[in-house]
Amino acid sequence: MKCQLAVLADAANLSVEGKLNILGEFNTFAAVSAPMVHPLMYFVAKLQISAGDGAVVNLRLRVIDGEGQQLVFPELRIQGRGEHPSDGTLASMPIIVPIAQALFREFGEYTFELRGPSGPLLAEVPLYVRQVAAG
Question: How large is the average pLDDT for residues 77-105?
Answer without folding.
Answer: 78
